[in-house]
Q: What sequence folds into this?
């Protein structure tokens, strides 16, 4: 790591003169530690030298100019809610926290966009949009903590991707700061753009390895119709999985189709102090949301879906009769990771397998077989209607946490190879971060790696942006 | 152009040994001329040295290896229906025609995708999807001639973008051949992918300057509800334009919202030998398609939209009562360019301004003013609900065609600067090609150009892919 510059006293002062008092933190291990790890877990953390909190684009640009000149690594950070260590400053240097840039600048009703800074909490954007009669259609499970900038950086998915797509589709424009400090504006308040290579779509999901996002123009959808939630309980996972393609192919307006297995539900309901119906005999649940414009459409929707589930072997389908019912169902889904972590703080959230819908049964079967072979207890949670599966393994009790980090990575590497063999990829929405970087590199061809690294160089010739992530070496 | 290699007798034989008899055309000016220009018009054409027609991916790869070794320029070509000279071989060399790779390989009902070769005609894909109960949602106005590969290369838009997005959104995976001949697979039969930088989204709209597409995995939508078409006639363009944001913001399921001005309708109906209602007194028409699941929804849709139009000053709104009615309306819209060209074969189709919906009235006003100042007769056709406007200028009668090529480019350059000043860009769906390359380069910052050119180098270090387009110099 000699290649990178260090933050000297002089550079510290220079950074401070950019941000003003309170904008740079150094030599305070307790505070710095908060920026050393993300929701992948502490064992994947790494301490930064400094945290810098710019208040606006000009400050971001000035900081990047200094970092570029001095070859200091910069790791942009949103809420730190990522699940793969994407925001961990592996090479030390600066964590560039966007937390102070948290304003919703405008809701533009005619063009149906919001203009926001990257540090806006996703849910705040949802609420602001709703107040003006719109829907922000992104719905990552971390909606109450994650920042919209982080959603963009990871191309976050979540519970409504079947209907609305992932974050890439919701972002129409961005102001970005290149590693050199130059500011570029991409896209705009419109929905079509063939004016050059589409950098905006490339940046979505690039995990802070190419540029810093300082402003976003966000698509707003018309307010959706009414929705209803169904919870289907199955005696076997096989029967559950069989339903999924049929539900998705039903032609009804399916907004969500989520899977929770018995283990996950057990630990999560224990954690929340609640129960789901039929918990004793259910091996798994499907949580399905159906939309309709009229009462008749809604009824037709849930009756059709309910019949499919029962036909595939569900022994019960509950239709939420109130907002309270719905909230209770979704509460378990949203807290799945927390539930597993209450059972074991080292429960690993990086699993994010993506396969074609037709391969979901085989993928689930392989996950369960391989977990058994490895003697690893897992819970499974899944945006199963997308073919996106999150196995959450628990650390074997006797294994030291230091070893678990590597063991979990190895376990996921095996699963990822299975997903790829089934026509899938190793991440659908959580990204690569550094937990999965090695397996990413092993599973791309040399030709593809060369292109990816060429793109990285085009943006970041000195490799100062989030080194050690995606396709960038750790120097 | 000395930098590039020439196709010697030996290389010709080598290419022929790759494709087999009939796969390489050289020294036949009459045939080569068919591949020298696209729908931008003959005056923007340039002759290739040879046309190569590979039959499969292995042949494409072998051809690219030869071209790479010999530094021979390669310009991939679909149907040649592009409107900006994107498929014109500016540096000579090889036109790589994908016309023989025209098979629909599979309709995969469970994963709701089609797997196709790039030379499939868009409409053939639409029909094959419909036969299986699906919708291919791309709808470029050239649907009966354009290839799906060309749709991807230009990120084609068209008449249903408001509802379904442009081609990028419909493409889930691709097999591509790099300039080096290496084959890469991107994406797959799924709808989420954060497994590395998203090359698939970058390639959409890259106009054959980065790689050759040899296979596409295409998203299929469930069959849509019923639709109805409305034609609203306005005494002034100002009143028409006022309606648009209100129609789009109505919350009804608007599939299309298209504008045709008086001039365009006049020449197009003359060309087709038909009339539209109220043609004498209408300065412009809105053609609006509304979707609904039930008769009541449809009625509610067209009544709401109709009232908006009348409230803004339309003196008449016609609801198509039959498929014949609908076809008559859309026939004029689809033949707008042909109508203008029947009036003047040099009518220039490259205008593709993109502005926020809120800026549409001002943009239309400026187009009309500037055309008047330049004494250029225009027709305007527009996916106005997207903020995407196609002014089609006619060559002044006394101007020689050679001069018109430059004059039209200059005219568009002025309009594009206006669009950019209004928060827009210079192309929404037709792309840049070479007709607009100069103005593109002039209107991007040096920092952005550097990134764009770095991306080009990452794919194509010898600049053999479609030189002279987008950000690649002509050597």
A:
């Amino acid at each position: 790591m000699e290649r990178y510059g260090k933050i000297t006293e002089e550079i510290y002062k220079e950074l401070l003169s950019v941000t003003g008092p309170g904008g740079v933190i150094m030599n305070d291990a307790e505070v710095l530690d908060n920026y050393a790890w993300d929701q992948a877990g502490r064992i994947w953390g790494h301490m930064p030298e400094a945290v810098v909190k710019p208040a606006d684009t000009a400050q971001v640009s000035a900081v990047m100019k200094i970092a570029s000149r001095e070859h200091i690594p910069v790791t942009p950070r949103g809420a730190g809610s990522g699940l793969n260590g994407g925001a961990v400053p592996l090479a030390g240097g600066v964590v560039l926290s966007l937390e102070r840039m948290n304003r919703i600048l405008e809701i533009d009703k005619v063009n149906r966009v919001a203009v926001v800074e990257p540090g806006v909490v996703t849910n705040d954007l949802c609420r602001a949009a709703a107040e003006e009669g719109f829907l922000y259609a992104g719905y990552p499970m971390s909606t109450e903590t994650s920042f919209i900038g982080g959603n963009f950086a990871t191309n976050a998915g979540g519970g409504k991707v079947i209907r609305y797509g992932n974050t890439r589709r919701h972002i129409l424009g961005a102001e970005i700061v290149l590693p050199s400090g130059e500011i570029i504006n991409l896209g705009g308040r419109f929905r079509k753009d063939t004016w050059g290579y589409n950098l905006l779509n490339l940046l979505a999901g690039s995990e802070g390895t190419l540029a810093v996002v300082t402003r976003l123009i966000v698509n707003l959808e018309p307010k959706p119709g009414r929705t209803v939630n169904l919870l289907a309980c199955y005696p076997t996972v096989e029967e559950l999985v069989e339903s999924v393609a049929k539900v998705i192919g039903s032609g009804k307006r399916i907004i969500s189709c989520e899977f929770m297995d018995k283990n996950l539900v057990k630990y999560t309901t224990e954690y929340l102090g609640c129960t789901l119906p039929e918990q004793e005999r259910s091996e798994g649940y499907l949580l399905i949301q159906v939309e309709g414009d009229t009462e008749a459409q809604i009824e037709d929707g849930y009756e059709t879906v309910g019949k499919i589930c029962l036909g595939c072997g569900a022994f019960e389908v509950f239709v939420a009769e109130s907002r309270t019912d719905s909230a209770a169902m979704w509460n378990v889904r949203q807290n799945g990771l927390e539930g597993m972590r209450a059972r074991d703080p080292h429960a690993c959230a990086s699993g994010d397998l993506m396969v074609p819908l037709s391969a979901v049964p085989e993928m689930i079967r392989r996950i369960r077989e391989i977990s058994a072979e490895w003697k690893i207890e897992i819970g499974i949670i899944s945006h199963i209607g997308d073919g996106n599966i999150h196995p959450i393994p628990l650390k074997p009790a006797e294994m030291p946490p230091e070893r678990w980090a590597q063991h979990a990575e190895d376990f996921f590497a095996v699963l990822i190879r299975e997903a790829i063999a089934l026509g899938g990829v190793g991440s659908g929405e959580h990204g690569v971060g550094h937990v999965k970087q090695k397996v990413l590199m092993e599973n791309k061809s040399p030709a593809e790696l060369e292109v990816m690294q060429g793109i990285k160089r085009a943006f970041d010739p000195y490799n100062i942006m989030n080194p050690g992530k995606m396709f960038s070496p750790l120097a």
Observations:
- Chain A has a mean pLDDT of 95.
- The first helix of chain A runs from residue 9 to 19.
- The CA atoms of residues 347 and 394 of chain A lie 4 Å apart.
